[in-house]
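Structure in, sequence out. Go:
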């Protein structure tokens, strides 16, 4: 951008050196064109400075977000997650596997539609199909039966 400013300054000096004045129509036109070019070069310079400030700000935000992600997801890295599909909206919902072993009454809701995808108080029957026999047993914990 500095190059544009320098070139406009050269044109201004050239018009003064050639004694271009506002008395003639052509002189008036050239002087006004050079003034407009000077204003444009100044605006380009201002835009460049604002752009550099925005780049610095966005880089700072990116660094802060990276730090925050590292802090938040640091705890999740070591834990196993359970992924289930919501019976209503069919979005995948993830939650910590330790919730399945909790003695507290818990419900996990889909963050997309709000329907329950896990209810620790739900009793379901499970069939053991490994050996071809259906063995009924009741679980205290269960994934929503729609899954």
């Amino acid at each position: 951008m500095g190059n544009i400013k320098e070139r406009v300054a050269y044109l201004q000096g050239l018009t003064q050196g050639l004694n271009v004045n506002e008395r003639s129509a052509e002189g008036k036109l050239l002087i006004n064109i050079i003034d407009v070019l000077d204003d444009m070069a100044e605006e380009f310079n201002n835009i460049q400075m604002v752009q550099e400030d925005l780049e610095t700000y966005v880089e700072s935000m990116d660094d802060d977000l990276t730090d925050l992600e590292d802090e938040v997801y640091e705890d999740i890295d070591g834990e196993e997650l359970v992924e289930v599909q919501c019976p209503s909206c069919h979005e995948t919902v993830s939650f910590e596997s330790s919730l399945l072993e909790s003695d507290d009454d818990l419900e996990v809701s889909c963050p997309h539609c709000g329907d329950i995808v896990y209810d620790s108080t739900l009793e379901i029957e499970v069939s053991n199909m490994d050996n071809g026999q259906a063995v009924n047993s009741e679980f205290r914990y269960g994934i929503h039966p729609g899954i």
